[in-house]
Amino acid sequence: AHASAPGPSGAPVLVASNRGPVSYSVRPDGTLDARRGGGGLVSGLSAVGPEGGALWVCAALGEGDREAVRRGVLEAGVRMLDIDAEVHADAYHGIANSVLWFVHHMLYQTPLEPSFDREFRRQWAAYEQYNRAFAEALAEGAAPGAAVLVQDYHLALVPGLLRELRDDLRIGHFSHTPWAPPDYFRMLPDDIAAQLLHGMLGADRLAFLTRRWADAFTACCDAVVGGTGATRIGVHGLGADAEFLRERAHREDVAGRTAALRAQIGGADRRTIVRVDRTELSKNIVRGLRAYELLLAERPEWRERVVHLAFAYPSRQDLAVYRAYTAEVARVADEVNSRFGTPGWTPVILHVEDDFARSLAAYRLADVALVNPVRDGMNLVAKEVPVVSDEGCALVLSREAGAYEELGEDALAVNPYDVVATADALHAALTMPGPERAERTARLAAAASALPPQRWFLDQLRELRGS
Ligand code: F6P
């Protein structure tokens, strides 16, 4: 378990995030199925240990979660907030995913820039209400002087709201996303931009994945609210959990998936280009497919000799723009296959069901990994692949991913909009001599695992308590 029950006087360490460490679904027989999530925060918090008395405050995200709250079956150390479903939808889909995610990733483009109308204002009120519910739960659950680590753009107002309720707490906030420079950030209505920044600045300490995002935040504060005041700003670049990944990647289920993938790839000498993403607009999957198509078109020597394993796991399907993007990915993959495929060769193998064991199998056998987001807070795939790769894997990496700051030297860097340069980088990656590839992979793996989640978490806690 990642945490034990907080004592009667409250928890000394609290984490707050929209998505919690566990999610529930109701089985046909009426019983509840609990599924534990993975990710940096879950393993990070495990460092506090059972004796740490940590409390994780999260939102109930579906009917299963709500039912678990009603039945009172939540495990110790987790508090799920049963926020009104419409309020949550407005806050999560309407504001967090459709506005704040788009601003931080600079995804709005002419002529699809937003109009901040009355509907937006109505949703913003829900976002405030949702943030207030978190602040109240944290205020209620925290021991005197406790450290509270608030996560992400969903909960940007929580630090300020919590400060008003409990002045004794050490409040930290961590952004897992990029941060946009002022010229873009100021697309938000002036009062909303100021409220958002003031909300975050209610923290003792704010932290970001890279210096670049931290500097952009500071620049926004300078431009919008006249500076960051007394709030400290830090950088903690979350790394891969190498020990866990290597052990996990050598279990039997992964070997089974490897065999299945090899059968799909066909031809023992075929090279593989692997990508693994949520089907997310910022991940730039379509341009990745176009770059691969260009490689096959302009360098026919690769036909029949390479396969692109593209794992694109649908996410946020409640939003029309994500549904459309998911369909576009499938359409373009089909197009490449009809254009170049032969009876014995499928150029793109697209998988859409999320399967961690299969992702690990692909990481192990990849010759090339393609990580080309238009903008990404960090991107852990870029860090996980070199850690579990069997024989070395060349990494084609967008310079707009946070991971580029740490891995840039040994990756093949690309401008994610430049499809021609991406096709060239894929060719360079496929032709990289084996020894060079192995050396680069070893250096990438070392850099990628320098800050494992537990250390990432404990560093933040130490810095926060020192404030
Ligand atoms: O990148 C920031 C982040 O919070 C990730 O941790 C997570 O993958 C995603 O955004 C949120 O996804 P979801 O909306 O599915 O919770």
Task: Explain what the structure shows.
- By secondary structure, the protein is an alpha/beta fold.
- The chain has 18 helices and 15 strands.
- It has helices at residues 40-45, 63-71, 85-104, 118-141, 158-165, 182-185, 190-201, 211-225, 242-249, 252-265, 285-298, 320-340, 356-365, 381-388, 404-407, 419-430, 434-448, 453-465; strands spanning 11-16, 22-26, 32-36, 54-59, 78-81, 142-151, 170-175, 205-208, 232-235, 271-279, 306-314, 348-351, 368-371, 394-398, 412-414.
- A seven-stranded parallel beta sheet has the order 5-4-1-6-7-8-9, sandwiched between helices. A six-stranded parallel beta sheet has the order 12-11-10-13-14-15, with helices on both faces.
- It is globular.
- The two termini are 29 Å apart.
- The relative contact order is 0.11.
- Bound molecules: 6-O-phosphono-beta-D-fructofuranose.
- Residues 19, 152, 176-177, 315-316, 377 line the site of 6-O-phosphono-beta-D-fructofuranose.
- 6-O-phosphono-beta-D-fructofuranose (F6P) binds next to loops.
- Keywords: Glycosyltransferase, Transferase.
- It comes from Streptomyces solicavernae.
